[in-house]
Amino acid sequence: MTAIQARINGVLGVEVDNGIVAGLISFSVGLAALAVVIVCIPSARRGVGRLLGGIRDRTIPFWMLLGGACGALTVSTQGITAGVLGVSLFSVGVVAGQTLHGLVLDRIGFGPAGVVAITPGRVLGGALALAAVGISLSGDVLATAPLWMLLLPFAAGVGIAWQAATNGRLSQRVRSPLAATFMSFIAGTIALLVAAGISIAVRGAPDAPPTEPWLYLGGFLGAAYILLGAFIVAHIGVLLMGLGSVLGQLATSVIICLLYTSDAADDMQ
After folding, report:
1. pLDDT per residue as tens digits for the range 40-67
2. Model's pTM, two decimal places?
3. Half-sphere exposure of 199 (CA within 13 A, CB side)
4. What is the H or E stretch that residue 2 is in?
5. CB under 8 Å to 82, separation ≥6 — which residues?
6. Is the dihedral of CA 168, 251, 253, 211 positive or negative?
């Protein structure tokens, strides 16, 4: 889902000529979808009630409410870089950041699963993921892509690991992954509103939103991914969840790039 979302938001960022605005559109769609789902599910409504009570009574730490800020960084980075670098290279940077930070967060016990020992198998899994990153960056990739554009996906990967751990902790506290995901999208939407306002003030108004419906599906995928992450990370830890998502992300991103290259070649003919 992350690879497909990156492709969608990357194209959306090119269409509106503003990656941050594209991220805001994606998050707004996801927030609206979650609001509809929560209204329809009684247990989710009770979770939101516990969330609001915890915020009012200050029994929920403020940092637990900020997971969505990292989600805002991720979708903005997708909109800024994925349309230029391609989904595969974008995913490479995300893999590196997510793997390294996931290992650290598990070791210090930041995630809802508590302290997870650094075993040889976990180190080997992380090392293999980083080796794949090194292979992907071989050749002329570093020469053709600006360094800042490679560092942004790495920062997004760090943010994804932190967001998964934070949302997992919040999900445990309010006993509802849906409520934790909803809070994540609220925080992310607020952060993107501020960032988009600054971007528009500096760069000017974005282009008109495109009419293709598929370009607005990124928010649904993001909501599903964060919801699954808040549930799964409590059972297997940040690193293993990250490595599992890496497998799907890289495999799907390669398929997307192959299909995109094939379509481009057909268009040239």
Report:
1. 999 999 999 999 999 999 999 999 999 8
2. 0.80
3. 21
4. helix 2-16
5. 6, 7, 9, 10, 13, 90
6. negative
